[in-house]
Automatic annotation (TrEMBL):
Transmembrane region(s): none
Biased composition (Pro residues): 16-25
SUPFAM superfamilies named in the record: ADP-ribosylglycohydrolase
Superkingdom classification of source: Bacteria
UniProt name for this protein: ADP-ribosylglycohydrolase family protein
Region (Disordered): 1-31
Originating organism: Streptomyces niveus (Streptomyces spheroides)
Amino acid sequence: MTPPTRPPARPRPRPRTVPVPPPPQALSGRDAARRSLEALALGDAFGERWFPLFRDRSRAYAEIKARITPQESPWHWTDDTAMALAVQQVLDQGGFIDQDRLALCFARTFDADQGRGYGHGMHILLPQLLVEPASWHTLAPTLFDGGSLGNGAAMRVAPLGAWFADDLERVVEQATLSAEVTHAHPQGIAGAVAVAVAAALSARGGLTIEAVHEATPQGPVRDGLARAVDVPFATEPWRASDILGNGQRIRADDTVPFAVWTAARHPDDLEAALWATAEAFGDVDTTCAITGGIVGARTGVEGVPREWLDRREGLG
Ligand SMILES: [Mg+2]
C-alpha cells in the first residue's frame, strides 16, 4: 500500500532580525508632549509680561489691543513651567506618574529656585516634601483645610495630556495622579483632568469644549465648561472672561473654563490664542500657560514670531 503523499513542507517564517520599532502613537505622544511643553512655557513667559510689575494696566491694555510684542528680554517663565518640567521629567524616566517621585521632583525644583512665583500653599508644602516626599499623602489633603482647589495642577498638566493622547482614560487617570500630589481637592483635580483632556484632544486634532466638559468630573470646573460651550467664539475674550473667569481668584474653576475656551477658539493658531487669552488679564501667566499648552500640543511653537522664541527664557 502506497503511503499517503504528504503535502510539501510550508516554508517556515524566518526569524525576525530587525528590532521592532515602538508604536507610532507612543512616538507621536512624546513629540506632542514636547511641543505642548514648549508652548506652555511660551504662554507662561508671554503672559507674565502683562502683570503690573512689568507694565501698568493702561499700557498693557493698549499694547495687547495693538498686538505690540513686549520688547524687554528675556521673558522669564514662572512656577507653571517649573512644575511642568518636573512632570515631564517623571514621564521621561518611567513613562507614567510615580507620585512619590513627582513629589520629590516638585520639591527639588522649588528648592533650586523659589523665586518663580509659587503660590502660598506650595511654599508651605514643597519644603516638607523635600524632606519626606511620600508625606504628600497626608499633607496635600490638609492644605487649605480640604486640599487645594487652586489652578496649580491644571497649569502644568497639558504636556501629560499630549503624552497619553491616544488613550483618554489613561489621560484622566494620569492627570489625576499628577494633581493629587499637591492639589487634593476634587476641583483642583478636575481642573487638571479638563486641561489634560483638552491637550489630548488638541494633539489628536479634535478639540471641542463639549468633549472636555464631558470628560470632566462633576462640580464647578465642569459647570464652567458647560457655560463655555454657550459662549460664541465671536465674543470678545474680555467679555467671555466676565462669564467664565480669568484666574483672578486663582481657583481651577475660575481659570480652566476660560483657558479652554480661548484654546478652542484658536485651535490652529498659538499666537492668536495667546493674545486672546492675555486680553482678559487676571492670572495671565497661568491662563496663557494652559491655553499655550493645549494649542501647542497640536501646533508646536513654529508659527509664532521668531522674536517671541528668542525672548523666551530657555528650558535648560
Ligand atoms: Mg506662574
